[in-house]
Design brief:
The termini are far apart. The protein has 2 domains: 228 residues, Rossmann fold, CATH 3.40.50; 100 residues, OB fold (Dihydrolipoamide Acetyltransferase, E2P) (Beta Barrel). The strands form 4 sheets. Strands 6-7-8-3-9-10 form a 6-stranded mixed beta sheet, sandwiched between helices. The radius of gyration is 25 Å and the shape is globular. The protein is an alpha+beta fold. The structure holds adenosine-5'-triphosphate. Adenosine-5'-triphosphate binds next to strand 2 and helix 2. The site of adenosine-5'-triphosphate (ATP) has 12 residues, from strand 2 and helix 2.
């Protein structure tokens, strides 16, 4: 074989490897009686990608995870792992690890034994009594910063530590895909941050694709490479966290993915006239509503020519504050600011562009 042909084959092979998704969902449908829990969901996951599925309670997130894991059979559609169609395979033959909400550790096994239990086949059976000495177990415990807990029982560790152990056990079976179902919901805010950071770093280090299901927008935006917003059984928007936050496809998603100020307005030549003045948008002419984020609204001393009003309430969070301003035109607008807390009379100015949603 000539060198040129060999090179071409190697390039072909490399591009096949890099373009085959880790997971493909193709038109998945699942109903329970009259409840349509999942309605034709299709999405790809790149190798090593972390996808967050974000949606309100009851929108079908857990059902979708269970379909991927093989714990439910779809009414229609396919699940592919790499190029393999696994739709008809039982859960234990999919190389997919599911980390449930509460971690669900075995209470009678130590931390190291819990992790060793995730090891495949014989390694698990022969490994339990000397679990803490196993290289794979120690590596996972190290990666998740819980090496010093190896000999403790689950009842002797905190909720955040238990979540790390649950992930280590899931990763021990060398899965192609990890599914995390609301993994941080039982943790308090400060613990959530550190567990989230470690879990993300560990998945990155091991290059495993993962899906995390959550109803917490901050969690989804801060954790994932891409966010899929789910509503009533459908994925209604997929994008990077930045895209989904800055350009939500409708005002409902805007209000779900963070705080939003949504105002009626008329769009003419890329500019919406609203009670907050003129706001630049990328949209066609017509009536509808314009959305800006509260942090885009500057609160200034009273300034002629700018919309003005009275501060009605200030909610202080430490790093920033919400300022509720009743405009002279009657609307109540919430701006998010940092620095000195304003009182009395103020003017408002929108910084940057907004999103425009034409009236239906
Ligand atoms: P949450 O965030 O509250 O866990 P979710 O987005 O994960 O909600 P699912 O648990 O997937 O939502 O439920 C989607 C819909 O399907 C809901 O209306 C739920 O009541 C229904 N459902 C889920 N599992 C079953 C089941 N086994 N039998 C009947 N209905 C079900």
């Amino acid at each position: 074989m000539g060198l040129g042909l060999l090179e071409a084959r190697v390039n072909d092979a490399v591009s096949t490897i890099s373009t085959t998704p880790a997971l493909t969902l193709d038109g998945l449908v699942k109903s329970f009686g009259n409840t349509k829990a999942v309605r034709s969901v299709s999405i790809d996951l790149a190798p090593g990608e972390l996808l967050a599925i974000l949606g309100p309670s009851g929108c079908g997130k857990s059902t979708l995870l269970r379909l991927i894991a093989g714990l439910e059979r779809p009414d229609a559609g396919r699940v592919l792992l790499g190029e393999r169609d696994v739709t008809g395979r039982p859960a234990h033959r999919r190389r997919i690890a599911l980390v449930p909400q509460e971690g669900a550790l075995f209470p009678h096994l130590t931390v190291a034994q819990n992790v060793a239990f995730g090891l495949p086949g014989a390694a698990r059976l022969f490994g339990l009594h000397r679990a803490g000495e196993r290289r794979e177990v120690r590596r996972l415990l190290d990666l998740l910063h819980i090496a010093d807990l190896a000999d403790r029982m689950p009842a002797e560790i905190s909720g955040g530590q238990a979540q790390r152990v649950a992930l280590a056990r899931a990763l021990a079976c060398d899965p192609e895909l990890v599914l995390l179902d609301e993994p941080f919901s039982a943790l308090d805010a400060s613990l959530r941050h550190s567990v989230r950071t470690d879990i993300r770093a560990t998945l990155r280090e091991l290059g495993v694709a993962a899906i995390v299901v959550t109803h917490d927008q901050e969690e989804a935006l801060s954790l994932a490479d891409r966010v899929a917003v789910m509503q009533a059984g459908r994925i209604v928007q997929v994008g990077t966290p930045d895209e989904v936050y800055r350009s939500p496809v409708d005002s409902g998603i805007a209000e779900f993915v963070g705080h939003a100020v949504v105002l009626p307005g008329l769009c003419v030549a890329g500019c919406v006239s609203s009670c907050l003045g003129d706001i630049a948008v990328d949209a066609l002419d017509g009536a509808g509503s314009v959305m800006v984020r509260p942090e885009q609204i500057l609160v200034l001393p009273p300034t002629p020519g700018l919309p003005s009003g009275q501060v009605e309430q200030v909610t202080f969070f430490g790093h920033d504050a919400d300022v509720h301003v009743r405009l002279d035109s009657g609307e109540l607008v919430v701006a998010r600011i940092q620095g000195d807390l304003p009182r009395g009379r103020v003017s408002l100015q929108v910084r940057g562009s907004g999103c425009f949603y034409p009236a239906a």
